[in-house]
Amino acid sequence: MEVDNDIDQTLLQQFSCMGTTDKDDLVRQLQKLVGHHLNSSTAAFFLDMNNWNLQAAICSYFDCQAPTFSMVLVKDVTIGEGESVPPDTQFTKTWRVQNNGDEEWPHGCCLQFTGGVQLCEAERVPVQPVQAGAITDLSVEMRSPPTPGIYQSKWRMVTPTGSYFGDIIWVILTVAEGGTLALTQQLSHLSDLGANPSPHVPHMLNPFTRLASSHNVFEDQVDGAMDLRPNEPE
Questions:
Q1: Which of 33, 88, 100, 171 has the smallest number of Cβ neighbours within 10 A?
Q2: What is the pLDDT confidence band of residue 167, given thresholds at 50, 70 and 90?
């Protein structure tokens, strides 16, 4: 019995050594793949967290190292409460959003359609980089369905690698005969362009300006005449 116990202890020790050797090798492989700046303790932590699966440990490491982006909806600029669109009409949907995170949105981010009714041909709309804390407008050209009703469309920001971030933003669209949104947007566009005065309109002079100028000249002449009077004897 004592011999058997000695054999069992020896086998356990050998298996233990084999396990330790394998883990050390996995630690070295993880350090080699992600960079030797990763110390052995941290490498062992990621491996142990993933049951010593090397591939899963690598994914976990890069997930932790990747920057996190953020976005919050500020308000709906167009298609707000009480606005409606006529059937089969092109319009512009605009959201005002803020990068409320600590990282700038990189090149390659997009606004992506993720559910509901797709109101435009494009599923992705490119978004320019936005600095942390900055506010920007995101616009998508859309077309209303031909049938009156209420339609919903869901959109989200997505990173160049395909990860969603930030608030879910919606289009809640009321399609109705006689909808005025298209006309409202056209008038707003004309207002933004501004209007220069016509060159054929004559310039109107202010008569009070001329009167005031003549009055000042008269006062100057009187003051000059008073200065030319002979001095009175004392």
A1: 88
A2: very high
